[in-house]
Structures are given as structure tokens and as C-alpha cells.
């Protein structure tokens, strides 16, 4: 009787949790799904255009969405094939299905990230869903998540796939499969191939990471090759033409591009200098970030390892729009597990307000010295913040490593020499490399 009542309370609490998330999401849904038709979920329209082109046998990478957007399909060919079911839906139905899917992916991502924090031993069962709902509702208002709904974007789905592949406790799929799928769909999750590579091989490599790397690489390769059998002209057009044209993605110097390259492009330096600086800075950030992602995994902080790798997808990519920062859900989860509560709250607040657009307004004010300098820094706020988060997460992984290693042993005081006893058998020589 008691267990049945407890189960009833849990279901009641989960129902209330869904209601809380729904109430938090309702204003965004109402606002963006009643937006003028030509401004509504424009990226979802891009996906459907790719799927429609496949259904009609039209060139995928020559199609554009209707005016005034006129947006081309920019994703790999497998994404066009996967978008066919969206094209089969009516436009109103596709909007609702996709928007509900965004919040479902956000909820799953939040649960994976905060499961251990909200479901701590000793906490009442009814409190777990309510805490989870509160955290999810807060994430709804992160600017990168709001942009998921505004544009009908796919990023939170990719975040969910990569996070689940890395932290699910007993997955029913082979690890690496979801990372391979995400990489094939949008390329930028390919940073997780690097993560699996550096954590699966080498002196401290883990066999499970190595197996996941092979599965991810195989899945990504299979889904890359498959379109050549179905839509060969489009597959060749993407890999040998469309992929090499970054302007297809939009104005790379726009405020919404918060990658290292985007920030450099807004300095309007000579093109060769911008490219050189980008290669140097991106290489340095990648080395630092992946190094500490590996270190975080070795000390058991898998969430920080995933968060660091996700930030690499934003900073090192040639183009990273604000909605690509959906990785903040994982970043805040990693910080909440180790930092004082005010730190993740401050990060959340920083990415709730539209700080980069304040920089645009400051530059438009044309205040001498202040506008061109401070305005540019504020305009780059989200990208600079992401770089700061890399440092913060790396610092925590370094501290955790030092805590695991413990203090260095004190120098041993040599004992007085004594003659060997015939009762003591001679010790075998220590094998080379044995540091025990």
C-alpha cells in the first residue's frame, strides 16, 4: 500500500513537472509560432525544402526557400534524406511537431546533465521531477535555446545525441552510434570523434572510448557514403562545391557568428591576416580544450569532458551562430556539479540576456573611442564568454586531477644500514616502467 501511494505521488509530481515546463515554454511557442509566416521557423523551412527537393528529384543545393528569406540548404546530403518525412507533413503540422521535439530534446538533455544532482540519495521522490522541471524551465530562456524555437533549429537534438552517447549508463545502442549520426547530419559534432580518439588511444586510453570511436567513425562514414547511392549528384555537389562556400551559411562577420573566426572577421583586418590569426588561435584553443577534456575524463568528470568538447564545436568552427551554443545546457550541468551555486546561475543569466546586441547598439551610438572598442568587445560577448568557460572547466579538471593524485610523498628518511638476513629472500628486480 505504501509503495503504491509513493508511486502515485511520483506520477503526480511528474505530471506537475510537465505542466511547469509547458507553462515556461508557452510564451515562446505562442510568440514564434504566430510570427509572420515569412519569419517563422525559417531553418525548419530550409530542412523541408531539402526534403521536398529529394521527393521531387530537384537539385538539393540549388533550391532556396521562398522570399524574403531565400535561404539555401547547407547541410550534408544525408540530412536532406532524413528531412523527407518533414516535407511530407503540412507546414503547420511540421511547425508543431518540430517545436515540441525541441522541448523534448531539451528535457532529455537536462535530465542527462542534472540526473545525479536532482536525484541525490535521501531526496524525496516527489522532489526529483519538480527540481528537474525547474532547471528545464530555466534553460528554456537561454538565448541559444530561444533561438532554437525562433528558427526551428536542430542543434539541441545534436547536443542530446552526443551527450547521451557519452554519459548514458547502460545504453541499448552501441556507443559511438549517435555521435556518428550527429556528425553526418551537421559536421560540427565531429569534434567528438577527436574526443573519442584522444581518450581511447595512447598510454591512458580507455577501451570503451576506442570502441566508441570506431563505431562513430563507421557510422559517420556510412551515412556520408550512402547518399552517393541515392542522390549521387547532390552528394557530389555538396562535398565538392557547396561545402567549400562558407558564404552559403550567411554573412560570416554578422554578430550572430560567435566563433573565433567570426570575432576576427568583425575586426576587418586584411583577409590573409584574419586567416592566419584564426588558424593560430583555433589551434591553440583546440589543443587546450581537448587536452583538458581528456584530463577531465581521466579523473572521472565525464560531464566536464563533454562540455569542453561541445565548446570546441563552437569556438573552432568557421561559423558558429548563437543557437549553436545550445551546449550551454551541458556546460552549466558540469559547473553545477563542482562549482558554488552562484557560478552556474551567473553563467545562465549571462546567456539569457542579449548582450551581443548591446554591443551593436553601442557601436551605432558612435561615441569616440568607446563605441569602436567597448562596442566590439560587447558584440563578441558570447564567444568570449565561451572561451572563459573553457578556462573555467579546464581549471576544475586540473584541480580534480590534483585531488585524485594527492600530495607528493615526503622524502623517505634513510634507515640505518643493517646486514641482510638469510631468512629474507632476495627481491626480484623491478620491471622497467613499473612505478608502483
From TrEMBL:
Renumbered to this chain, the Low complexity biased-composition regions fall at 405-421
Residue spans of biased composition, Pro residues class: 422-436
Alphabetically, the GO molecular function entries are: hexosyltransferase activity
Query: Which Gene Ontology CC terms are recorded?
Result: plasma membrane
The UniProt entry lists membrane topology as: Multi-pass membrane protein
Residue numbers spanned by region Disordered: 405-436
TM segment ranges = 12-33, 96-114, 126-142, 178-200, 212-231, 272-290, 297-315, 345-365
* Family under the similarity heading: Belongs to the glycosyltransferase 87 family.
The entry's protein name is: DUF2029 domain-containing protein
Species per Swiss-Prot/TrEMBL record: Sphaerisporangium rufum
Amino acid at each position: 500500500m505504501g509503495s503504491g501511494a509513493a508511486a502515485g505521488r511520483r506520477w503526480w509530481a511528474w505530471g506537475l513537472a510537465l505542466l511547469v515546463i509547458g507553462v515556461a515554454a508557452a510564451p515562446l511557442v505562442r510568440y514564434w509560432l504566430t510570427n509572420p509566416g515569412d519569419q517563422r521557423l525559417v531553418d525548419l523551412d530550409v530542412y523541408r525544402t531539402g526534403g521536398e527537393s529529394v521527393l521531387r528529384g530537384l537539385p538539393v543545393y540549388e533550391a532556396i526557400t521562398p522570399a524574403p528569406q531565400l535561404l539555401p540548404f547547407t547541410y550534408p546530403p544525408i540530412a536532406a534524406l532524413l528531412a523527407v518525412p518533414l516535407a511530407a507533413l503540412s507546414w503547420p503540422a511540421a511547425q508543431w511537431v518540430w517545436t515540441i521535439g525541441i522541448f523534448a530534446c531539451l528535457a532529455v538533455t537536462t535530465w542527462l546533465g542534472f540526473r545525479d544532482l536532482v536525484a541525490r540519495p535521501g531526496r524525496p521522490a516527489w522532489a526529483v521531477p519538480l527540481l528537474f522541471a525547474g532547471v528545464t524551465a530555466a534553460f528554456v530562456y537561454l538565448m541559444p535555446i530561444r533561438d532554437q524555437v525562433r528558427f526551428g533549429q536542430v542543434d539541441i537534438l545534436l547536443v542530446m545525441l552526443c551527450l547521451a552517447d557519452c554519459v548514458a549508463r547502460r545504453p541499448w545502442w552501441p556507443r559511438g552510434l549517435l555521435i556518428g549520426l550527429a556528425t553526418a547530419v551537421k559536421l560540427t559534432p565531429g569534434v567528438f570523434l577527436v574526443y573519442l580518439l584522444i581518450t581511447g588511444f595512447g598510454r591512458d586510453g580507455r577501451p570503451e572510448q576506442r570502441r566508441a570511436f570506431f563505431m562513430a567513425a563507421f557510422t559517420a562514414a556510412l551515412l556520408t557514403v550512402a547518399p552517393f547511392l541515392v542522390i549521387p549528384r547532390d552528394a557530389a555537389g555538396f562535398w565538392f562545391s557547396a561545402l567549400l562556400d562558407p558564404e552559403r551559411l550567411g554573412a560570416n562577420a554578422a554578430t550572430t557568428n560567435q566563433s573565433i573566426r567570426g570575432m576576427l572577421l568583425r575586426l576587418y583586418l586584411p583577409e590573409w591576416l584574419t586567416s592566419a590569426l584564426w588558424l593560430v588561435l583555433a589551434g591553440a584553443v583546440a589543443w587546450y580544450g581537448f587536452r583538458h577534456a581528456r584530463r577531465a575524463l581521466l579523473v572521472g568528470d565525464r560531464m566536464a569532458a563533454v562540455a569542453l568538447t561541445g565548446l570546441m564545436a563552437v569556438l573552432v568552427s568557421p561559423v558558429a551562430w548563437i543557437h549553436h551554443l545550445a551546449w550551454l545546457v551541458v556546460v552549466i550541468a558540469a559547473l553545477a556539479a563542482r562549482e558554488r551555486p552562484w557560478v552556474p546561475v551567473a553563467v545562465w543569466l549571462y546567456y539569457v540576456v542579449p548582450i551581443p546586441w548591446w554591443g551593436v547598439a553601442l557601436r551605432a551610438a558612435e561615441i569616440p573611442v568607446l563605441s569602436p572598442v567597448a562596442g566590439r568587445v560587447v558584440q563578441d560577448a558570447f564567444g568570449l564568454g565561451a572561451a572563459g568557460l573553457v578556462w573555467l572547466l579546464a581549471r576544475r579538471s586540473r584541480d580534480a586531477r590534483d585531488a585524485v593524485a594527492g600530495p607528493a610523498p615526503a622524502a623517505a628518511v634513510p634507515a640505518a644500514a643493517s646486514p641482510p638476513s638469510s631468512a629474507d629472500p632476495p627481491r626480484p628486480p623491478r620491471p622497467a616502467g613499473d612505478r608502483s
